[in-house]
Design goal:
375 residues; 13 helices; alpha/beta; six-stranded parallel β-sheet; 14% strand; globular; 12 strands
Length: 375
């Protein structure tokens, strides 16, 4: 369906989010779709691609979400009726749908286990979290009855009554890669305590004097920004801040290994960290904590080392082992690249993604405008 008109909306994610922009929107543009993208460009200091119709909205952060929600509702009311398909990327956006007349298909891309993720939200008081989780479940159940869903992880299926297509976070895998070197350690991804920033910083301290450099790439929460700035000032690492996905991936080339130090939290236990696939795609070994999906992929394919949760000493030891054993390091990197190229290459996944959107848009077209009921 060339010329499909799509409205993509987020008020939470960075406008250059890898899944949203570099994978999904890139695939839609390459297929000839007309894409309007509503995202918090100004809040993140990001520029929109010229191929897009960009709409700037406020960012929803912490307890300050009302203005962003109001703006999102205005965007959906203005641009939604002319779209063949509306693609939503935040559970918060489900709250602004009631009463809107949207004739096209409305799709929610489920990125995370929202209820489980609440335990890591420092801005949400602990006593409120059980109530919030219950509320999330109610909203999800109602959304499932009204909307189309795609899931980023097979593990999300248990949250819903019906089967929904899984569009996993695969990545772009180059045909050839630079062999894993022995000088640089990399981390690419969001930075927060739940994602192991403290463990990474302590690992950097233990590696001081080893001759290794550590490149850290990603958006950080307020606590992590301060901690990373102090570590950089002390010469322990280099923090690049947020870098567009294609540029971030290039920083992996020739690295010694890539770190994935997620903590043992409910939201991560059934997810495959995308960074692991990205490290594999660029031919570098993985050093990861023992989350089930990470262990399965890394051990089965022998493309990295497993370290205990919250253990910087073991993490530093794993890095040094890879530095001192070039045969193992190169073999792990080569195996990871081969596995990623054959099973986790985004252009292959994109074909299924686009086909699903077109089926839903086609199904919605013959019908008159519908009013979404209470979500």
């Amino acid at each position: 369906m060339p010329g499909l008109r799509v409205l993509v909306c987020t008020i939470v994610h960075h406008p250059q989010d890898a899944r949203i922009l570099h994978r999904q929107i890139r695939a839609m543009l390459d297929a000839g779709y007309d894409v309007t993208y509503a995202a918090p460009f100004t809040a993140y200091g990001a520029e929109a691609w010229p191929e897009l119709h960009a709409v700037d909205v406020p960012r929803a952060v912490g307890r300050h979400r009302s203005e962003a929600l109001k703006a999102a509702r205005r965007v959906l009311r203005t641009h939604g009726p002319e779209a063949d398909l509306v693609l939503l990327h935040d559970p918060e956006l489900l709250l602004v749908l009631p009463g809107l007349d949207l004739p096209g298909a409305v799709v929610w891309d489920v990125h995370e286990d929202t209820g489980a993720a609440l335990v890591a939200k420092s801005w949400l008081p602990g006593l409120v979290r059980p109530l919030a989780r219950a509320g999330v479940r109610v909203v999800e159940e109602r959304a499932e009855r009204k909307l189309r869903l795609i899931l980023a992880e097979p593990g999300y299926r248990n949250r819903f009554r019906h089967n929904h297509p899984v569009i996993p976070n695969t990545t772009y895998v180059p045909d050839t890669v630079v062999p894993a070197g022995d000088k640089r350690v990399v981390y690419v991804g969001h930075l927060a305590v739940a994602r192991g920033v403290d463990v990474m910083l302590e690992t950097a301290r233990k590696l001081a004097g080893s001759g290794l450099s550590i490149d850290v790439v990603g958006h950080a929460d307020s606590y992590s920004r301060r901690a990373l700035a102090r570590a950089e000032e002390a010469g322990l690492l280099r923090w690049h801040g947020f870098v567009p996905n294609d540029q971030a991936l290039a920083l992996m080339d020739g690295a010694l290994c890539g770190l994935s130090l997620l903590r043992d939290l409910p939201n991560y236990r059934h997810s495959m960290p995308t960074k692991i696939l990205e490290y594999m795609a660029h031919g570098i070994p993985v050093v990861t904590t023992p989350l089930p999906a990470a262990v399965s992929l890394t051990q089965v394919h022998k493309c990295g080392l497993i370290v205990p949760f919250d253990d910087p000493a073991a993490t530093a030891a794993a890095v040094l082992r890879l530095r001192d054993d070039p045969e193992t390091r190169l073999a792990m990197g080569a195996r990871g690249h081969e596995v990623a190229r054959n099973g986790y290459h985004w252009p292959d996944t994109a074909l299924e993604f686009l086909a699903r959107l077109e089926v839903w848009a086609n199904a919605a077209r013959p019908h008159p405008c519908i009013t979404l009921g209470t979500i």
